[in-house]
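Hey, can you fold this one?
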Amino acid sequence: MAKQFLKIIKSLFLLFIIFELIFFIYFSFSNLKQQISDYKIRKLSAQSYKYFSQFELILPKPNSNIIHITDEFTDNFKTKDVLDLGVGFFDDGINQNKKVYSVAIGDSFTRGIGSLDNLKYGWVELIEKRLKWIDILNLAHLGGGALHQRYSYNKIKSSIDHNLVLFNFSTTLGFIENLDDRFPTHYMRSIMVHENLNESQLQERIDNLNNAHGYKVYLEYFTNNHFYHSYTVGFVFKFISLLEIKNLIPKKFQTHYITGKNQDVHNFNKGKYRMGLLNEEHADMRTRLEQSRSTKVLNDRNFSEFTAYADKVFLDKIINHSAKIINEFSEEVKLDGRDFIMTILPSKNDVYYPIYKGTLSNENKIDYEEIRNKLKLKLKKDIKIIDITEDLTKFVIKNPQEEIYWFNDNHFNKLGYKLVSDFISKKLNKIYDFGN
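Sure. Predicted structure:
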């Protein structure tokens, strides 16, 4: 019996060695070392945020370098305490003796994702360099949707000397983000109160929630297991992650919740401690949009498409909802005695689909120009709108060899951000007419 048991153990050990060798070779060709290095950088960057009690907001720490890594590009976002508030901003400083002092509010397009370095190539900084009469403080860290941005702006606006709000709306994701009132700042403030957390406990929870972005269980395993990491176990985790992506295993069994020591991720995603600004119909609309998302390759370019936009009744509800939020935001800004200008930063679909119109199949024939025009018609007449979609479309028609977006990612590349800054600068000059 003992010999039989020993034989089984030897066989299992031999099988394990064979699998280890196979998966060692697999991970060697998968550039595992670089993946681990990038993953560690992501986790370190995720710890660059803290809760600032004076504003009741989670904001970047000053003097941080927040690194955003994708398969196509790596962005560096350096923060600086430009207002002497102890808070980090994605900005290089306030320039003196300007005629207009503005804040730029928006999402990842305003932050400059895809620009590689927003302080060198982001459109906000490029406009400052081009127009000598304006300073723009980049506030693209106040939240993804207009609800979050408006909430955060109202918390911090009194600490910023400015007379213009440059509000940036990026289609088509902006419609989705406006249907979401889950907000990390509100969630963390709620658990701080309900669970009576001290500062260090709250910081740990913030770091854990931020680490959820880009979380990969197999890289977590290789990163944290310092004694010995089994390539076989690592492959099993990677395979499970693939099943998660394909939604082939129930969420309660997903490794993110099992190994991520992060119940907050589950609670946040489920909508615990929402802001209470939206109802369940809005959540259902958001879910429908997200589930209708697919990736399509047209004319050798990758596009994110939302088939739910083809439903005109549903689309009108979405547009009316976003228009209402923007109208209310503009009214608040104007009541404070400040100007409000809305810029539309077009998606890849907005720019290219009109060009491809004659070659698209029926399932791809979503009229993005109609969507933008409907939104603009729903906005208050006194809102100044800068829409650079046609300018960018004309450019790519004239320069078909030039790429202004990344292939897989939907953000602008360096050239795209330069064009955005050029076109917005020209339109701002027409509005203010200061001579340059």
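The domain at 47-183+275-432 is CATH 3.40.50.1110 (Rossmann fold). Let me know if you want another pass with a different chain boundary.
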